């Protein structure tokens, strides 16, 4: 096998999933992660379509089911808490807005990370600062913020929408990311006194504001969210207090349970605020460097497909490398070829896009309620069913990595 030593940047969803499959194929894998441990936090992510098949092929579905969060569905509420529309979880055959298998993002990241142990080397609390590859050379010299420089055969950026690897090897973020004009904050609230009765509650307020709360996995735990529409803002993404301040200002005066959630936000340790933007690149590889998951093709949570893209991308990239005996000059173009149609369809936003999710005026909010109420009926039903069906819109090859632990040629 050529190109034995592979560095992955990012231990979110895509990074550990890739490490898992690369180890199965016999590669030596190092993962560098900026956080001091796998990052907790985030709301539930959906295991749908081909993403779910990848988890099954990893033999992790049983554990994922045990960790999944029980939810009755999505309900829109007005400022006094009255329900204005409901979509139950079993609508769309369990593959709708709230899908049958929803797992907390932090739980999934931890599950994947543990599945890579003890065979994968992790460098936590560090980041790549330089990538040097000579044309036709036999490897990449990587420098880190803390660790000593090292040489790898290949480098994969799985470090999310603000990827450091992408910035170093492909170019600056503002050229490659299309902002949707939407910001979202997520955090865990405990002992807040809010009874969700198993529902994912969402409140739209004028000004393009969305406050939400959905059940967590542990008793009394709620996964809260605040989204707002805004042109790009200058603030430090790594300073949670600056983020909390921004959100508190935007949501001052908003009804429903927003004041209670804002109070819980002040002390939430996993508070996370980010802009939503789609990553669009003509090619996901440059020489010996490849991009995976949100780093290469972030679709944003509005599509509900980011986790499927990350899991499927990891499976395909590792599978193609194994099938090519490690030869990246064969495997990288195949990775692009197999993933491109899947990614292109996944990046088409659902009807209405950011404005549909967070309408700015009262009329828009009423129309959103109306469309949500008619979601399970014609003509909305087939439109939405098509959006969710995209998760399964790819034929996953059997690369022979599941049972034998060895790569074999693609069928
Ligand atoms: C804290 C958090 C909460 C999220 N919550 C939700 C949610 O509620 N709903 C939803 O749909 N999606 C959420 N997402 C996004 C979702 O996880 C991804 O869209 C999807 O699963 C693709 O995963 P990924 O591995 O490509 O990216 P990510 O899950 O973003 O993982 C990227 C990883 O790279 C690490 N990283 C970043 N920069 C560097 C660097 N310079 N060096 C090393 N490591 C780096 C990050 O710490 C992170 O662990 C969240 C992401 C994060 C990080």
Please, could you describe this protein's structure?
The chain is globular, with a radius of gyration of 21 Å. It has a 7-stranded mixed sheet, sandwiched between helices. The chain has a 6-stranded mixed sheet with strand order 7-2-1-11-18-17. It is built from 14 helices and 18 strands. Strand 9 and strand 10 form a beta hairpin. By secondary structure, the protein is of the alpha/beta class. Bound molecules: flavin-adenine dinucleotide. Residues 5-324 form the FAD-binding domain. Pfam families: FAD_binding_3 (PF01494).
Task: Give a quick summary of the entry.
The chain has 411 residues and is of the alpha/beta class. 34% of the residues lie in helices and 24% in strands.
List the defining traits of the structure above:
411 residues; alpha/beta; FAD/NAD(P)-binding domain; 7-stranded mixed β-sheet; 6-stranded mixed β-sheet; globular
- For the biggest β-sheet, the strand order reads 5-4-13-14-15-12-16
Q: Provide the CATH architecture of one domain.
A: 3-Layer(bba) Sandwich
Count of distinct strands: 18
Which band does the percent of strand residues land in?
A: 15-25%
Span of the ends, CA to CA: 19 Å
Number of helices: 14
CATH superfamily of one domain: FAD/NAD(P)-binding domain
What is the fold's blueprint, element by element?
Elements lengths: L4 E5 L4 H12 L2 E6 L10 E3 L2 H9 L3 H7 L5 E5 L5 E6 L13 E3 H11 L5 E4 L3 E6 L6 E5 L5 E3 L1 E4 L6 H6 L3 H4 E14 L8 E7 L3 E7 L5 E9 L10 H12 L6 H10 L4 E8 L5 E2 L2 E3 L2 H4 L8 H18 L4 H19 L6 H5 L4 H12 L6 H10 L22
The protein binds flavin-adenine dinucleotide.
């Amino acid at each position: 096998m050529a190109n034995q030593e592979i560095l992955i940047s990012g231990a979110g969803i895509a990074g550990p999933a890739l490490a898992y499959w690369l180890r199965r194929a016999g590669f030596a894998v190092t993962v560098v992660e900026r956080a001091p441990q796998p990052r907790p936090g985030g709301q539930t992510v959906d295991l749908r379509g081909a993403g779910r098949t990848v988890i099954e092929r990893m033999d992790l579905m049983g554990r994922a089911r045990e960790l999944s969060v029980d939810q009755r569905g999505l309900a829109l509420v007005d400022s006094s808490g009255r329900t204005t529309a409901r979509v139950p979880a079993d609508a769309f055959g369990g593959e709708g807005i709230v899908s049958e298998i929803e797992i907390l993002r932090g739980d999934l990241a931890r599950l994947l990370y543990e599945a890579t142990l003890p065979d994968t080397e992790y460098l936590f609390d560090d980041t790549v600062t330089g990538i040097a590859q000579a044309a036709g050379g036999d490897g990449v010299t990587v420098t880190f913020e803390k660790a000593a420089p090292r040489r790898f055969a290949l480098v994969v950026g799985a470090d999310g929408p603000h990827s450091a690897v992408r910035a170093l090897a492909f170019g600056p973020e503002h050229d490659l990311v299309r902002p949707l004009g939407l910001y979202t904050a997520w955090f865990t609230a405990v002992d807040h006194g809010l009874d969700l009765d198993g529902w994912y509650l969402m409140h739209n307020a004028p000004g393009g504001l969305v406050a939400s709360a959905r059940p967590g996995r542990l008793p009394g735990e709620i996964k809260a969210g605040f989204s707002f529409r805004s042109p790009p803002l200058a603030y430090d993404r790594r300073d949670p207090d600056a983020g909390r301040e921004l959100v508190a200002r935007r949501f001052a005066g908003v009804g429903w349970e927003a004041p209670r959630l804002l109070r819980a936000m002040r002390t939430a340790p996993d508070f996370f605020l980010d802009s939503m933007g789609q990553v669009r690149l003509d090619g996901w590889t440059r020489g010996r460097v490849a991009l995976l998951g949100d780093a290469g093709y972030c679709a944003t949570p509005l599509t509900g497909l980011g986790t499927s893209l990350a899991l499927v991308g990891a499976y395909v990239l590792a599978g193609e490398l194994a099938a090519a005996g490690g030869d990246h000059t064969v495997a990288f173009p195949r990775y692009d070829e197999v993933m491109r149609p899947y990614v292109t369809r996944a990046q088409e936003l659902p009807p209405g896009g950011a404005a549909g999710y967070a309408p700015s005026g009262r009329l828009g909010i009423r129309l959103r309620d109306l469309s949500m109420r008619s979601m399970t009926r014609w003509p909305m039903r087939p439109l939405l069913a098509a959006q969710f069906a995209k998760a399964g819109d790819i034929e996953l090859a059997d690369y022979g990595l599941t049972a034998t632990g060895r790569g074999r040629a693609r069928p």
